[in-house]
Design a protein that fits this description.
Elements (H helix, E strand, L loop, with lengths): L1 H10 L6 H8 L3 H7 L3 H19 L7 H16 L2 H7 L2 H9 L3 H19 L8 H18 L9 H16 L1
Length: 174
């Protein structure tokens, strides 16, 4: 994974090859092919790893709507600051996960959010509704903020963007 990450940073997502990943990892191409069928699979695993780490590094601080929103915003901030995640989101590969299908990291985030939303609903802090549907919408709102935050940076600095994301999510979930 470290070899793949260094390739993304050095070349960009579109120019990463399995041959270069193998060379940097000090293994043969067949060794890489035994684990991943293609470069896209390696990149998807790399992205999932970074997203999973961001989620686990930001623990839930309660079962309230406010705690859930704080966690989502904190994870979004971490992902916006992750050069590798942002390189992948700015690539053509991201279009697959934005417009065509949910990736495994998105499914994992929806599952985690749905569990947190269900708990917050039991406490009365989150409105009624199917937790998976609410989680999918929270994912869309947050994903859009992560992807597009840079274009509004002259208007919304990082702190303002985080505050507005929190306001949006609190309003949606109330």
């Amino acid at each position: 994974m470290a070899a793949a990450a260094s390739c993304v940073v050095d070349f960009g997502v579109e120019r990463v090859t399995l041959a270069e990943i193998a060379r940097r990892a000090g293994v043969s191409r067949p060794t890489v092919y035994r684990r991943w069928p293609d470069t896209r699979s390696v990149l998807a695993a790399l992205l999932t790893g970074h997203i999973t780490t961001a989620l686990s590094d930001v623990p839930a601080r309660g079962k309230t709507r406010e705690a859930l929103v704080q966690r989502v915003v904190a994870v979004a901030d971490r992902l916006r600051d992750d050069d590798l995640v942002m390189a992948v989101l700015r690539s053509e590969l991201a279009l697959v996960y934005i417009a065509q299908r949910l990736g495994s990291s998105q499914q994992m985030l929806i599952d985690a959010l749905a569990a947190d939303l269900r708990a917050a609903q039991h406490g009365g802090g989150v409105r009624a509704g199917d937790p998976r549907q609410l989680a999918a919408m929270v994912l869309l709102i947050t994903q859009s903020t992560i992807q597009s935050g840079q274009i509004v940076r002259p208007i919304l600095n990082d702190d303002a963007l985080a505050a507005e994301l929190a306001y949006s999510l609190n309003g949606y979930l109330s």
